[in-house]
Every structure is written in C-alpha cells, then in structure tokens.
Design goal:
9 strands; Rossmann fold; 7-stranded mixed β-sheet
C-alpha cells in the first residue's frame, strides 16, 4: 500500500476527537469500546519517548491498527494462539475460522503502510509460552478467551512484560468481571498501587505507576459506576447462561 502514515499532530488530533476510522480493519469491538480504547491510548502515548504495545487475542487485527498508525508507538506485539474455536464463560463455544497471523497480516496490508507493519511482531502461541518480547510494554490489551481462568492466566503471562508505569486494558468486562476483580485482589496483596475503571461499553482499564493520576483525570469521568456495572453484568450473564441451558 502506498498511503503514508499520519503525522504526529494529525494523529493526535484524530485521537483526541475519538475518530473511530482509526480502526481500519473490522473488529469485534463496538463503537463505545473503540472510543474507550482510544481514550486509553491517549493516556499512554504521552510518555516522552512514546510507548510499546502488546495485545493478546488479535484475530483480524482490528484493534492493532490505531497503534500501528501511531507515530508515538515504537513496537506492536500480537500474541494469539489462533484456535479454531474458544470456550466462553457463557457456556458456549465460539468459532474462529481461518484464524491465522498470515490472514491477519494480509488484511492489515490492505490498509497499513509498510512502515507501520514494520513495527509488528506476531506470536502464534499462548501468552504463557512467550519467553521475550521486543521491549517491555506501556500498554497491554487482553482480548483472548472469555473465561475468568483464561483472563487471569493471560494477565499473569503478560504482566512479566509490563513496565512499572503501564496500563493493562481488557475487553468484554461484562463477562469476565470476576476474573478482573481477582487480578485487582492479587495486586492489592502484592502492594501494587493501581487505579481501575469499567469503561463504556465493556472495557476495563488498570493503571499503575505514573499513569494512575492521568488515568483518573482522563478515564475517571468516562467510567461506569463500578458496583452498578458489575451487578447488572452479573444479572445479564446469569440470564444468558440460563437461556442457553434451557434451549440446549
């Protein structure tokens, strides 16, 4: 592709405007999810030397594209075991046909300049099997298997590669809220100061180190009421599980 990467000023303006066209490849995130992810990206990219990004569960690469385009993003790591199907906390399995890094990269080539794709490194394996990444990350996004066990495992696997100042974000917080609260309990037990936010639509952000203050300022006003969100999500999840069992 011959298109050029956006300048830093142009990209920053589009990010501040929550320009959803920055997501150039189809993804399973809804518009409100995308807006929240852009808000998180805006918090992290303020580092003087830019930032490094790790993602677990990329599928077609839709949520990689804002970081591939970002002039302040130095490296993009995609970790995905590429299963043909995945279990889910709702008691159903979800199919991912033709799920491969080769397919994802071919899709990304249709929109991303070669210079942007040069930042991308892929691992076709479970995050627990990755021994090293390009560099420690300022931003990690976890969107793999939607079970509480898997999200806790993916967090532990990628936390090894997190910088002391970082944000870890998760998708489908309405399904894995118990796993997310277990992660916070672990950090509490280890004395790791953090701030957390349930963001629209179903994004969870966990900020540590120097990002705590900026996350509270920029993400706090966007956040759902925590107790109300978890209670509503739990009711909806139980209803969906019951309906699924009744129709089985």
């Amino acid at each position: 592709m011959d298109a050029a990467s956006p300048s830093q000023a142009d990209f920053g303006a589009r990010l501040a405007a929550r320009d959803l066209s920055l997501f150039q490849v189809r993804s399973q995130t809804k518009p409100d999810d995308k807006a929240s992810l852009l808000a998180i990206q805006e918090v992290v990219r303020g580092q003087a030397d830019g930032y490094a990004y790790i993602e677990v569960g990329s599928h077609l690469g839709g949520t990689l594209t804002p970081h591939l385009q970002d002039p302040r993003c130095r490296s993009v790591v995609s970790i995905d075991a590429r299963p043909a199907w995945q279990p889910d906390v709702r008691g159903r399995a979800f199919d991912y046909p033709e799920n491969s890094s080769a397919r994802m990269i071919q899709t990304l080539r249709e929109t991303a300049p070669a210079a942007d794709l040069g930042k991308l490194v892929t691992f076709d394996t479970d995050a627990s099997q990755v021994d090293a990444v390009v560099e420690p990350a300022n931003l990690i996004f976890i969107d793999g298997e939607h079970t509480n066990t898997a999200v806790f495992r993916d967090f532990l696997s990628t936390w090894r590669f997190a910088r002391p100042d970082c944000v870890v974000a998760f998708h489908d917080s309405n399904l894995i809220f118990d796993g997310l609260q277990n992660i916070e309990a672990l950090l509490d037990s280890q004395g790791v100061a953090h701030a957390s936010f349930f963001l629209p639509l179903n994004v969870f952000a966990l900020a540590v180190g120097e990002f705590i203050t900026s996350a509270r300022e920029q993400l706090g006003p966007l956040a759902h009421d925590r107790d109300a969100f978890v209670a509503a999500s739990r009711d909806a999840l139980w209803d969906e599980i019951a309906a699924s069992r009744a129709s089985a």
